[in-house]
Amino acid sequence: MSLELLTCLVTLFVLAGIGAPIAYAILISSFAYLTMTGQGVGIAGKVLMDGLYNSFILLAVPLFIVAANVMNAGTISDRLLGFCVALVGRFRGGLGHVNVVASLIFSGMSGSAVADAAGIGKIIIQMMTKSGQYPRGYAAAITAASATIGPIIPPSIPMVLYALVSNTSIGYLFLGGIIPGLMMGAVLMAMNTVLSHRRDFALETPVPLVELPRRTVNAFPALLMPAILLYGIYGGVTTPTEAAAVAAFYALLLSALFYRALSFKALFHILVDSARSSAAVGLVIGGALILNYVVASENIPSQLAAHLLGLDVSPVAFMLGVMVLLLLLGCVLDATTIILVIIPLFLPACRELGIDLVHFGVVAVINCMIGLITPPYGILLFVINAVTRIPLSEIIREIWPFLVVLLVALLVLALVPGIVLWLPRVFGYAG
Questions:
Q1: Does residue 431 fall inside a structural domain?
Q2: What pLDDT, on the 0 to 100 scale, is given for residue 180?
Q3: In a domain, 10, yes or no
Q4: Structural domain of 277
Q5: pLDDT of residue 308
Q6: Is 70 exposed, middle or buried (0-12, 13-18, 19+ CB in 10 A)?
Q7: CA dist 400 to 150, 393, 397, Å?
Q8: In sequence order, which residues have a C-beta less than 8 Å from that of residue 101 and are 6 or more positions away?
């Protein structure tokens, strides 16, 4: 390792360790490397512009953020919750099931775990704690666990970023996330059922079955969004970026005109919040592009791939090793940083070992999402703590059963690529 690279890494970890925003830590450490190697910071501008010019798909990120915020602000979340309560609220642990099913449905609109947790998740936590039937730590824990499904089922902002660094088809990545997302929902509902019977949670007052058709019709326009999105991409009507624009426009149309639940003032605040969120993601993306240039200059990915091949590592051992590493990193880094900075290091090794990049991408994104709820630093735990004021210790105490079943599901998905790749292959994927 060269002195310049060592200085870059030390600067990065010191700044991140003292609490500096990760985007600033990445930028400053990259500039330190460029200065020490005599390249000057001007090269950073060129790398940044080249990266953005060749990454039209990045436009999908702010558009999906707008769509999620519009969905949260209108009455769409309430209508979806009403539908979920009528559908699964009648079973023991009903509101826990509602929590998971709502995340499955809402994930088809937001593509963001934080958006799910802070938006519809906050509403369900209030419902669960208000009823007095669920400990507040349990309500927060199942909300955090179910929010991890958000970026797995399309649309998915992390998968857009993975497509950027891996040059993989975003359409096939989206398809690859559908079955794993449903699988994650199933294992969470199974664990909720077990815990509800073990703790003897009271049954909710069931919504009469005759109410289900009315609530379905009420929520149907919102339920159409994932279908419109997927048809646009896979029907050849739109590119993924254009589909993101359609999603944002449809959410706006639905909230403002169809449901009449969005004022101009609320829309202004939505656009401001979306701009802030997009800018935060954009800073990390910009820093990651420059840091990836640093990594490529040192030829680290090729050296890592050659080293792994020299050790004669099997694809299964490699996948398991990467999974453990990403889970550990997920305790201290956000998913965006891991996908943009860490995962590109392993892509050449994946190609050399014959690991399918769509399979690897879906498993890696799930890994990053589970990292969001892994104590002690899981970001989603802090988000829910911030929006609900439920003590972090109570959330961490209740999160473990859900974390375990998600890790089991992750292990199965990593070891059985056919689960992830079945749907993409149905639509013509040759991998």
A1: no
A2: 95
A3: no
A4: 41-426
A5: 65
A6: buried
A7: 20, 12, 7
A8: 84, 87, 88, 185, 189
Torsion of CA 121, 226, 57, 144, to 10 degrees: 20
Cα–Cα distance between 384 and 137 in angstroms, integer? 10
Task: Give the Cβ contact number of residue 74 at 10 Å.
Answer: 23
What separation, in Å, do the N-terminal and C-terminal C-alpha atoms of the chain show? 35
User: Is 30 a member of any domain?
Assistant: no
Phi, psi of 37 (to 5 degrees): -90, 0
Closest CA to 107 of 169, 188, 191, 193: 188
Average pLDDT per consecutive 10 residues, the chain (431 residues; last block may be shorter): 80 80 82 83 74 67 76 69 76 81 70 62 76 83 87 83 87 90 93 89 74 80 75 74 81 80 82 81 78 77 67 83 84 77 86 91 92 78 78 89 95 94 89 73
The DSSP-derived string for 62-105 is HHHHHHHHHHHHSSHHHHHHHHHHHHHTTSTTHHHHHHHHHHHH
Residue 169 in contact with residue 358, Cβ under 8 Å?
A: yes
- Total residue count of the chain as it appears in this document: 431
35 and 7 Cβ atoms separated by less than 8 Å: no
What one-letter code names the amino acid at 226? Answer: P
Task: Tell me how far the alpha carbon of residue 218 is from its chain's centroid.
Answer: 28
User: Residue 141 half-sphere exposure, CB side, CA atoms within 13 Å?
Assistant: 27
User: Measuring CA to CA, which residue among 235, 222, 213 is closest to residue 72?
Assistant: 222
Continuous segment of H or E residues that includes residue 227: helix 212-234
* CB-based burial label for 288 (10 Å; 0-12, 13-18, 19+): buried
User: How many domains does the chain divide into?
Assistant: 1
* 380 domain-assigned: yes
pTM for the complete prediction?
Answer: 0.79
